[in-house]
Design brief:
alpha+beta; Arc Repressor Mutant, subunit A; three-stranded antiparallel β-sheet; two-stranded antiparallel sheet; 6 helices; 5 strands; elongated
Length: 143
């Protein structure tokens, strides 16, 4: 498994995305809030982005909608399966060839289903060939 990123490249990508968004969404009003982006493990500075009141409102509305969509009582089995498929794809795209039950269980709030549902879904993924069991318990090869 790859160690977590500590060079801040993801934080810089997020900062660039905010900078681009605030530039494209040109608002002549003065900034009312500042978003300071830092990255772990020492929380080093990456960037500061200023937002106007309208931009702040749009960002908060987006985050509220996203949080509402990810409430456990909002998730359907189909949506949860799509989130799991996305997590597996993310792992594969990051160059990981294996995923663990813990990786998926840690994402339970994002998946919006119980750990029991996730365990049953892993069995389905093994049956359909998406995952393959390994000799290590709770570790699966991504096919």
């Amino acid at each position: 498994m790859k160690p977590p990123e500590t060079d801040g490249s993801r934080a810089r990508v997020l900062a660039a995305a905010f900078r681009t968004w605030t530039t494209v969404d040109n608002d002549p009003e003065p900034p009312v809030v500042r978003i300071e982006i830092r990255y772990p493990p020492h929380w080093a500075f990456a960037s500061t982005n200023n937002l106007t009141a309208r931009q702040q409102g749009r960002l908060l509305a987006f985050l509220r909608d996203d949080l509402a969509e990810n409430r456990p009582d909002h998730s359907t089995p189909e949506r949860a399966a799509a989130v799991v498929a996305g997590l597996i794809t993310e792992h594969a795209a990051a160059g990981r060839s294996r995923i663990t039950t813990a990786d998926l269980a840690d994402a339970a709030p994002r998946i919006g289903r119980s750990r029991t549902w996730i365990a049953a879904h892993i069995t389905d993924l093994i049956d359909n060939g998406t995952l393959q069991e390994t000799r290590r318990p709770d570790t699966f090869r991504i096919n």
